[in-house]
Amino acid sequence: MPNKNDSSNAARHNARHYALQAMYQWQMTDASISDIENEFLQLHVEKKIDLEYFKELIHGIPENQEDIDNTIKPFLSRSMRDLDPVELAVLRLATYELKKRPDIPYRVIINEALELTKKFGSVEGYKFVNGVIDKIAKQLRVTEINMR
To answer: What's the pLDDT score for residue 143?
Structure first.
């Protein structure tokens, strides 16, 4: 018998999945977050999704973009404009979670970022994302990492 946690984990995973797609669309089109949100809600309303978390991500990432990008930049080997758009969206999503959601273990955030990159990014993109997110986690989650 599946437990409630499995269901909520799947809903949270789906929220990240659709938030990544929404962030990609926002980066590529400059459409308003409200328009993107409405479009995603119409298309995916029947799917199992943590709607509250989806909304937090798609609004929180743009609202905190400057801070998020400033956190990412020191760990890049190239400029942000040279990043693959999917990898940039994943980095922003994971960095947002590392900064704003201490209730989510850093290992979960890294694992989700890698899964999303493998699904939507370039063939080897997950290696790059893993390296950057790992360094950001070591900076932002020192206490959590040292407790392992």
So the answer is: 84
